[in-house]
From TrEMBL:
<keyword id="KW-0732">Signal</keyword>
<protein>
    <submittedName>
        <fullName>DUF3168 domain-containing protein</fullName>
    </submittedName>
</protein>
<dbReference type="Pfam" id="PF11367">
    <property type="entry name" value="Tail_completion_gp17"/>
</dbReference>
<dbReference type="InterPro" id="IPR053745">
    <property type="entry name" value="Viral_Tail_Comp_sf"/>
</dbReference>
<dbReference type="InterPro" id="IPR021508">
    <property type="entry name" value="Gp17-like"/>
</dbReference>
<feature type="signal peptide">
    <location>
        <begin position="1"/>
        <end position="23"/>
    </location>
</feature>
Amino acid sequence: MSDAVQAVQAAAVAALSAHPVLAAQLSGIYDGPPPRAAFPYLAVTDGLVSDWSTKTQQGREVRLAFTIWDDGEAATRLADLMGHVDDALRAIPRDVPGWRIASLVFLRSFVVRDPAGPWAGLVEHRVRLLAV
């Protein structure tokens, strides 16, 4: 994993953990689905990274994906928590170790459910960074 991904994911996890609603309602924030966790919880997916360099500066585009898992009867609580992910990510500082965030943009979200399993709500953002 590149240092850009590590820097932006660490900042994202800190922002998500500090968000009052997410901190109160999620049982945890994990790197991938944990073997045994109470619902609802959030799993961070490794970011897709591509080059975003200029002629004079190194840059990266990182796709951050977060999946919230919930076992409720309806997706109401899940949808509410997904909205708070976007709110929390707006609190990420523009300067992360070794990088400056040029833009942080919501890309998409969607909800799916296996008939025999929990709800999964994916929230994806694009972060463009320049090396400092």
